[in-house]
Amino acid sequence: MRNRxxxxxxxxxxxxxxxxxxxxxxxxxxxxxxxxxxxTPSISDxxxxxxxxxxxxxxxxxxxxxxxxVPVTDPDTKxxxxxxxxxxxxxxxxxxxxxxxxxxxxxxxxxxASEAEYKPTDVPALRLRxxxxxxxxxxxxxxxxxxxxxxxxxxxxxxMQFTEGASDRxxxxxxxxxxxxxxxxxxxxxxxxxxxxxxxxxxxARFLVRLSKGEIPKDAR
Length: 221
Description:
The protein has about 220 residues and is an alpha+beta fold. It contains four helices and eight strands; from the N terminus they run αββββαββαββα.
């Protein structure tokens, strides 16, 4: 007689799936958060990592937001291959920020500043700019053999600033850092980093939605 496991097939399938499927990015403490306009991201937020919000800021009055290109400034990005990879990740992150902000419904218009020039008008507007300050590709081999313990993790960090369109006054700064290790055969670095930046864009939009409802981080009041 064939020896069969006592576990039902659907449960075995679920265990195998979880063992090899990606488990998403996890947040870690940002490295050297970038200050801007007198604001330093130092308040922990459940969505956006570390944040700082200008006193009296009211997101509800802004009708337009322009999302600028988010360059990679990680000093370890040096050779031609790294630069091509960085450009691809940068573009994908900008597009995901645009998509998530449009889905949020917070603004009448979300402008991709790489596709259309934004010129300040009398309509209250914001600009979203920043940089990818960490882009560590890790090691797929290390993730395969020791990913459960964090070995070979990819590392991603974005330091972002929201400024008023007309005055260029900084009103919000954030710093969000993610790590990813789990995936099929360790998962590719591109897949892990793409997922990390997608998660950052999603969670940044969630943070703004919470601000619109008056859920300002306690220490930022």
